[in-house]
Amino acid sequence: MANVFCLKRLKNLVRKHTIICWEVIKPPYANVSGDTHLTVTLQKITRDNWEECIDLKVSKDQQGFIASNLYSLAEVQFLPNFEALAIYADKKMVGFTMYGLDEDDHNYWIYRIMIDEKYQGNGYGTKALLQVIENIKLKPDAKEIIIGYIPDNIEAERTYLRAGFQSNGLAPWGEKLVSLKLI
Hints:
CATH topology: Aminopeptidase
Shape: globular
CATH class: Alpha Beta
Distance between the termini: 48 Å
Helix content: 25-40%
CATH superfamily: Gcn5-related N-acetyltransferase (GNAT)
CATH architecture: 3-Layer(aba) Sandwich
Order of helices and strands: HEHHEEEHEHEE
Structural class: alpha+beta
Radius of gyration: 16 Å
Strand order of the largest sheet: 1-2-3-4-5-7-6
Number of helices: 5
């Protein structure tokens, strides 16, 4: 019965929060490590924190760059080789990421990485990206990581290039692609 209630509540939230957009992180580049006093970790999305996750938002000018966390949590249910994780700075949820093995090209893709607008500019996105890369490196079949992003998302591009990704041009669907070779 509780699962039915949660599903009905999720459907109602989807109706209220359906904003499909694309955005990524906006860290300061002079200090990519951010506040050295805060530890950034990736943690599972659970029944206890999923609503906090869907409440994370980006600024209005970034909403065209990334899908909402609500949409992403729904989408990951149908991507068997993907993980959705919350990004925490110490004990505070500040962002969200979703990545995994794409069944079509057998490469690891980072589909989402976002930091809530209130927490951008502290290096959390960069720290989280580096942790995602390390998590993927642990996979025995990981050879390359690919990220697609809207060409106008200059801050995301800078972050990816600083993390070692190389530009791969434009995808047929209009996104810019960057990749990081692992072997």
